[in-house]
Amino acid sequence: MGRVLLKVIILGDSGVGKTSLMNQYVNKRFSNQYKATIGADFLTKEVMVDDRLVTMQLWDTAGQERFQSLGVAFYRGADCCVLVYDVNSAKSFETLDSWRDEFLIQASPHDPENFPFVVLGNKIDVEENKRQVTQKRAMTWCQSKGNIPYFETSAKEAINVEQAFQTVAKNALQQEAEEQLLESPPIVNLSQRTNGTSLSDRYVDYPDPIQLDSESSQSYGCNC
Amino acid sequence: MGETDCSSSSLDYNLLTASSDSMVEIKRTDLPSDLPPYHDEDRYRLVYSKSKVYVNPTAYARDNIPGFVALVKREAANATYLLAWIPESLLNERGSSEWDKFVKIEEKVAWDEEDEDVVLIDLPTQRPESYAFSVPLTSIYSLIVNPPTLSSWYGSIGINLINGDTLPTLHFHDDESHSFTLPTPPRPLVNNVSSYPPPPTHVAKSGNSWGGEDLLSRLRSYAHLLRSTLQPTLFLVDPSRADIEAHTTQIFADDAVDDILAQSSYPNSDSPVPAHRRPRPITFSPPLTPNPYSQHSSVLHRSLASPTSSSSAQPSSQARIALLQSFSNITRATRHAAQNILSHPLAKPILPHLPDPVRSLVNANGEWEWGSWVEKGGVGEFESARVYLARWARIVAEEGERSRRREAQALPSASSSSLAEEASSLGIFELLQSTSNLPTPKSSRDPTHPIDEKMWSKWFAEDGRPKVRVEEMKREVFRRGVKAEGKLRQTVWPFVLGVFEWDATHSEREKLWAEKRKLYHELKDQWCGVPEVFDRPDILEERHRIDVDCRRTDRTQPLFTTPTTTPSLSKTSAMEDEKKAFQRYSTISPNMSDIGAQSPTNEHIDRLAGILLTYNFYEKELGYVQGMSDLCAPLYVVMDADEELTFWCFVEFMHRMKQNFLRDQSGMKKQLLTLQQLIAVMDPELYRHLEKTDGLNLFFCFRWVLIAFKREFPFDEVLRLWEVLWTDYYSNHFVLFIALAVLESHRDMILRYLVEFDEILKYCNELSMTIELDTTLAQAEVLFLSFAQLVADIDRRKAEEQLLTSSTSGLRHRTSTTSNGKTRDSNISMPTLSENLRELLNTGRP
């Protein structure tokens, strides 16, 4: 059987460090010069999880909620979702709820209750007196949402980044395995697939092509 | 060896410079103030040097800076070894004797610590623009080593410091470097020269395969280098125990990167690659002549040398040119360029160097087995290989194209035809010619002769009225662009954007401008210094959004680089208090309670943020949306920090772009849908491919369209592109033709190699900073003209048909069913044009 591909979506308010975390993890580097992400991009990294070599595909999207209506194309088939906030910004923490809800609506996983999330409190390298969200507060929230694993990270100083994404990989792999159990035998719409071996065949939910002209896609008011 | 003291808590490094530029993320690192001063009596001994090591501040080869990489021993009570990079220009300034020292050390084959022939040098002084650096080895955390591969001609080494900084990446141009072009001392050949392939032992003897490897092997004498098993390109310098544990877990897997790395750079017996993973013997024969390309430098060079040098002494560079030429012919002639490239006989020597997944596609005869690849491919197994291959094919094709153009330039008569020729490789022209026999349009652009002050002033009379038609002036801006040097753009842009009336006198313009200035300040005063507005929750939220983005927009532009010096809090007179209170409610960023940890700001960033906030009061529906700061920052730079001009230019720019930022994204959806329809008409094959790959949503063009290619070109080129777009010379939506031009020039790669939506997205995202602006603009123009022709042709044929049916309607009346069917059939062969597509022909704004 081929190598496993795990799709991971990284979400959170703009400026909390999604791109930085991803680059620190994959490229082992940090820059103050990352620009706001426009559209979407991803990086891939091969990791060992329980003696299996898997490829993680980490998706980085724009942090402004206005662009989230486009997210559906990227969220489908995700195996894990990483929620990121800035420990120095209470607001970025308070929006985690809506990021989580939004993801569950758009990705529509089979078993939303047990879909794996991982929460990262980023930028812990900043002086302590700037911190606005305590570890306790974050952990309480994570527990209330079904014991979401929580890591405090610094993309700048490469603190806990490796460990956090190792957990992401592990939970994503587990999710992937469960999805496959649910799916056997896979239901593939052969009429739409000619080569029959595409990535998306692994999902029961064959992603519908986005109707660009439809007015049906949701729009989200701002949170204010 | 390497027992240097690194216990001091402050980082003991002397970073001479690390400047930054728009292209690469070279972080500016301020000189730590608590640095122990280096005394005059400190002696710096040059122990190793290598020439032609480049720093690339931008993606453009013309900006590359050549220099020497050196290992320097600071001879003090406890000696420190420093890794340094010194640009040639700095050495030049010091005269030939200093230069000679570096050359001498480079030439030295054997090296000896106690050599009495000590070469002492001065380390150059700090200079922000020179990129020079010297850092103690103890401050280096890791090296990212990328040996030469098929896709990059030169190997490189990136240097990460313990404090998290990254130094400019060093690129080893071995084909120019002295130590690699020296005639190698004759060594006994075990084999007869004619035997092919030679035994692998030969490889081991030839020493280090590229400059970076050479440097690494020398570094090993001063520090412990550990190659990470997690990431094969990562080398840790004097790693901690924790790092050693983390990075030595052996992974047994067929890792393509590892394999290519092993093949290209670690043929030595002391290779860190475990024995079972050593490369298969590289098949090339020993060169007869000392040939700069034959033994060292990139894999492609080396591979190409083999068939020729084994039979004759033909210089391999000739072979390379021939190959590149044939590549370029192929790209022009066929649509399966890359496939043909790789089955080309000259390319065969490259094949062994391809990563395993790619190589497995080539059968014994050197032919591609695409079908089997797709079958075997399955779950993402070869995904990375496909993107790799597409990217590589593109680079080869581009290199071929460049060399072809260089030749064309050498022959003046040929140069004029090169653009037209180029255009003929686009898929659309086959379609155009096959369906309607239309001539291929030509581009009118002339970017090498931009509008200068003289020409501009000639267009206007004494009183400021234009002497030339407005359309004429816009056409010239479209064709030539505006001179980048000086401040002409500051004058011209407000006209092109529509801030100033073209058809008016000086005094009329001044009057209108005074009104606009007044209006700007009225708008700004609605929030500036008004606490109850400034701190209103919705404004607070807007401020936060704006601030976060402005702090990370174009920070490499000089205006935005320097951080603010913190204002002194010494005296507090009544006036000072008032001033502070005003500042509290006028400066967007510093006093926000919940901004999180962001990059530092400065006065220009604050002002940029102020302009964007004021725009919220001018255009109340939109709100700040990500991407707006990208559109505004270049205006601010070109307007030379003039707040009012920037604001009104931004208003006009947004007038064009507003639809992209609507809350429901309807504008972006419409634009992408129009682009989709345009592709369907202009390149049905590409359309069908995108359909198959779930790519019809065209999300890989999202960034291009949303911010008008701001992120795809270097800053200076963005300015050139935007002024062309603003002329609306052909179409109000010329940006879509630019998008089409980019897609068309990569259609072969996309059709051939990219079979999944995410692969196309990755490929397109990585085109950023590799697209040639003027070629693309010329192609976009030609595509527009072709589109217009096509529309006219379709309309003409439809009209003819109607005429035909109406004139024969009497006769056909009774045999309606069959004839109707026929009429419909002939309609199907002609593409139908949507309203969106017809709108593309509109120019001029309401």
TrEMBL record, chain A:
<dbReference type="InterPro" id="IPR001806">
    <property type="entry name" value="Small_GTPase"/>
</dbReference>
<keyword id="KW-0547">Nucleotide-binding</keyword>
<dbReference type="InterPro" id="IPR027417">
    <property type="entry name" value="P-loop_NTPase"/>
</dbReference>
<dbReference type="GO" id="GO:0003924">
    <property type="term" value="F:GTPase activity"/>
</dbReference>
<dbReference type="GO" id="GO:0005770">
    <property type="term" value="C:late endosome"/>
</dbReference>
<dbReference type="Pfam" id="PF00071">
    <property type="entry name" value="Ras"/>
</dbReference>
<dbReference type="InterPro" id="IPR005225">
    <property type="entry name" value="Small_GTP-bd"/>
</dbReference>
<keyword id="KW-0636">Prenylation</keyword>
<keyword id="KW-0342">GTP-binding</keyword>
<comment type="similarity">
    <text>Belongs to the small GTPase superfamily. Rab family.</text>
</comment>
<dbReference type="GO" id="GO:0005525">
    <property type="term" value="F:GTP binding"/>
</dbReference>
<protein>
    <submittedName>
        <fullName>Ras-related protein rab7</fullName>
    </submittedName>
</protein>
<dbReference type="GO" id="GO:0000329">
    <property type="term" value="C:fungal-type vacuole membrane"/>
</dbReference>
<dbReference type="GO" id="GO:0032889">
    <property type="term" value="P:regulation of vacuole fusion, non-autophagic"/>
</dbReference>
<keyword id="KW-0449">Lipoprotein</keyword>
From TrEMBL, chain B:
<feature type="compositionally biased region" description="Polar residues">
    <location>
        <begin position="291"/>
        <end position="300"/>
    </location>
</feature>
<dbReference type="InterPro" id="IPR035969">
    <property type="entry name" value="Rab-GAP_TBC_sf"/>
</dbReference>
<feature type="region of interest" description="Disordered">
    <location>
        <begin position="263"/>
        <end position="317"/>
    </location>
</feature>
<dbReference type="InterPro" id="IPR021935">
    <property type="entry name" value="SGSM1/2_RBD"/>
</dbReference>
<dbReference type="Pfam" id="PF12068">
    <property type="entry name" value="PH_RBD"/>
</dbReference>
<dbReference type="GO" id="GO:0005737">
    <property type="term" value="C:cytoplasm"/>
</dbReference>
<feature type="compositionally biased region" description="Low complexity">
    <location>
        <begin position="303"/>
        <end position="317"/>
    </location>
</feature>
<dbReference type="InterPro" id="IPR000195">
    <property type="entry name" value="Rab-GAP-TBC_dom"/>
</dbReference>
<dbReference type="Pfam" id="PF00566">
    <property type="entry name" value="RabGAP-TBC"/>
</dbReference>
<protein>
    <submittedName>
        <fullName>GTPase-activating protein GYP7</fullName>
    </submittedName>
</protein>
<dbReference type="GO" id="GO:0005096">
    <property type="term" value="F:GTPase activator activity"/>
</dbReference>
<feature type="region of interest" description="Disordered">
    <location>
        <begin position="805"/>
        <end position="829"/>
    </location>
</feature>
<keyword id="KW-0343">GTPase activation</keyword>
<feature type="domain" description="Rab-GAP TBC">
    <location>
        <begin position="483"/>
        <end position="729"/>
    </location>
</feature>
